[in-house]
Write a structure and sequence with these properties.
The chain is α+β, with helices and mostly antiparallel strands and 657 residues long. It contains 21 helices and 25 strands. The chain is globular and about 85 Å long.
Length: 657
């Protein structure tokens, strides 16, 4: 009996101890059970309005009321958990609690314990900076997705005016800050030409022909297997130690895919046998002759550009995140090491395997730090290689095939010209097969098969099904949230939808479904543009006013960039000109009419630059106190609410060009 009583007492003590531990944890975080929704990494709810107000009375939870208007259907709950940094959880309420004024109205709220004066001072500083910047700018533009629209200057002056920044920080906060909508704080961020050239898209000859990192097989100058050579990237991708496949066999297997028809999702990709004479024979010649073993270091490709696609990251506020992509662009060369014209371009597109906020922050800082260095200098090129090694080397992503960070390999070419009269640029996409460890053809993302736009034998049910698909999903398409499935229902039956390759059949090429009336006509002009812009073919042709069919290419001895990237048309042989103004493209489908087509504005490097600078304007070092505070000396730093605004305004990019 005594043993039984002793055992009961011991169990009771343990139970009380566990209860206290749970209670203690809940005191630290009463919303421990409210999890972040990882689905929001790629498609987060976006705030349409944000208001910050100083609370008039003392509140045990904090000093400032933070309110954000969010789409309830996207949030999917009356509470939204969001992370600042890696593990600092904020829970926004639409349930009438923690500062929420009206449950169910879509205004998600929380009370933050932040120094109101410090936050007011930070916002006042930004008002002053914005006012000065406005006085220097002739035009101001706001990005909506990939397009750059003019901002009403009078509206901005009502925000960035002297009456506002002459107020004390306390008075500024008492008035309630209701102007911090999405994108306001990054509208006036300056993105210089040097930032674009050094930190976003690097084409400087002193970099892309760096003798210690590139190699010219004709002159035998440079470094065979240098860090930025085509052969080195393929060697790291083959990862012979893991796969047993030699780099030369890896590259040759990939090139040989052009020699036979390939079928992807029911789409037959016609063979182009002249890959042998245009590329493989050239490779043999550079390696020493027709019977010489193929030397991967002498594969016939020249480096054109190294590209930072940090803008392709996912949201880091919902339990993960990425650092976007890093890219290399090469062009096919002939036996004299001159670029083949028209171009055959190969684009290596690597996912940057960074998942924690400090890792992503450091990676972004490395890119931004290049602006202060001179391209081609030992310091610049070394710093750039320190960045690229993080995604090019074998082992940089153990969870992917061959433990390589490649997302996809893409080609864009007119060099392997098909027989006349149909001549078109073709884009293909490749992944690494986890079983064979070789590159293989996959569907080209967001590109429907040609028959849905009237290619070949015109099949009106297909065209009507495509138009109906756009009409049924127009709001999702306009929001750039539309992923195309492998199949589309046509006349009641599933039919292959995504294409195995992309064909661009003329400079004004676009997707319209060809129907001028009836159920197949796309009703919404903006939806028509977005579905087309998000295809490879539309983006590389009519939708962006691109007459060359590439965004990065080579002609007349120089690298050429499209006006979609720079905002200006670059003529052959001339230096690239960068601007903050948009490049205007008349709607290629003549919507709403041929006499008055919509003008669509693009300047993608400007957008990417603002995105990187805005990300770096607050850091990942924010440390938040418990939700309920008794010790008032603990405060969220004033950058905390600003970072929260940014995260609730961030929309990942889906279009990958």
């Amino acid at each position: 009996m005594k043993k039984f009583l002793f055992l009961c007492a011991a169990v009771a003590v343990i139970a009380i101890f566990n209860l206290k531990c749970r209670s203690s944890r809940n005191d630290r975080d009463p919303y421990l059970g409210v999890a972040v929704n990882k689905a929001h990494q790629k498609d987060p709810p976006i705030a349409t309005q944000i208001i910050i107000t100083t609370l008039p009375e003392k509140n045990e939870s904090g000093t400032v009321l933070f309110e954000a208007a969010l789409p309830k259907e996207k949030v999917g709950s009356n509470m939204l958990a969001i992370l600042l940094g890696d593990s600092n959880k904020i829970v926004l309420h639409d349930d009438g609690l923690n500062g929420d004024k009206l449950a169910g109205d879509g205004m998600y709220s929380t009370i933050l314990n932040v120094s109101s004066d410090s936050l007011g001072a930070l916002l006042r500083e930004r008002l002053i900076t914005g006012n000065k910047r406005l006085s220097e700018l002739k035009n101001v533009y706001r990005f909506k997705g990939r397009m750059e629209f003019p901002e009403n200057r009078d509206n901005l002056m009502r925000i960035f005016n002297e009456d506002n920044f002459k107020k004390s920080p306390a008075d500024l906060m008492k008035a309630g800050i209701g102007w911090l909508g999405p994108g306001i704080l990054d509208l006036l961020l300056p993105v210089s030409a040097s930032f674009k050239q050094r930190c976003l898209l690097v084409t400087d000859p002193a970099v892309v022909t760096d003798a210690s990192r590139t190699y010219n097989p004709c002159t035998n100058t440079g470094t065979p297997g240098g860090a930025w050579t085509f052969g080195k990237l393929m060697t790291e991708m083959a990862n012979s130690t893991l796969t047993g496949i030699t780099p030369s066999d890896f590259v040759l297997h990939w090139m040989n895919t052009w020699k036979t028809n390939q079928t992807v999702n029911g789409d037959v990709i016609p063979s182009k046998a002249n890959i042998q004479t245009k590329a493989i024979d050239t490779w043999h010649t550079l390696s020493g002759g027709p019977s010489a073993p193929l030397d991967v270091n002498k594969a016939p490709f020249k480096l054109l550009a190294i590209v930072n696609r940090f803008d392709l990251r996912e949201s880091g506020s919902y339990g993960g995140g990425t650092a976007g992509e890093g890219r290399f662009v090469f062009c096919l060369i002939d036996q004299n090491c001159q670029p083949v014209l028209p171009n055959f371009l190969v684009i290596f597109e690597y996912g940057v395997n960074k998942t924690s906020c400090p890792q992503i922050q450091h990676y972004a800082e490395q890119w931004a730090g290049l602006e202060s260095m001179t391209p081609g200098s030992a310091a610049y090129n070394s710093a750039l290689q320190a960045i690229t090694d993080q995604f090019t080397l074998a082992g940089t992503n153990p969870g992917k095939p061959n433990q390589n960070s490649l997302d996809q390999l893409r080609t864009n070419e007119l060099a392997l010209v098909p027989p006349a009269p149909i001549m078109f640029w073709e884009l293909r996409e490749f992944h690494i097969d986890p079983v064979t460890h070789q590159l293989f053809n996959v569907t080209t993302k967001r590109e429907p098969q040609g028959q849905y736009n009237g290619f070949g034998t015109v099949n009106f049910p297909d065209i009507s099904a495509f138009g109906g698909f756009v009409n049924d999903n127009e709001q999702v398409i306009i929001a750039d949230n539309m992923d195309l499935g492998d199949n589309l229902t046509v006349s009641g039956n599933p039919k292959p939808f995504l294409a195995g390759h992309t064909e661009i059949r003329g400079p004004g090429f676009h997707w319209d479904g060809m129907q001028t009336s009836g159920p197949g006509r796309i009703h919404n002009d903006t939806a028509r543009m977005h579905i087309s812009l998000n295809t490879c073919s539309g983006c590389h042709a009519g939708e962006t006013g691109n007459t060359r069919f590439f965004n990065i290419g080579f002609s007349s001895g120089a690298v050429l960039l499209s006006p979609f990237l720079t905002g200006r048309v670059q003529t052959d042989g001339s230096p690239t000109v960068y601007t903050s103004d948009p490049f205007l493209v008349s709607d290629p489908a003549d919507r709403p009419s041929a006499a008055h087509p919509i003008q669509w504005p693009f300047n993608d490097l400007e957008r990417r630059g603002r995105d990187l600078k805005d990300f770096l304007s607050t850091g990942c070092t924010i440390r938040l106190p418990p939700i309920r505070l008794e010790r008032k000396e603990f405060f969220i730093p004033p950058e905390g609410p600003i970072e929260l605004i940014k995260q609730l305004s961030f929309k990942p990019v889906t279009m990958t060009d």
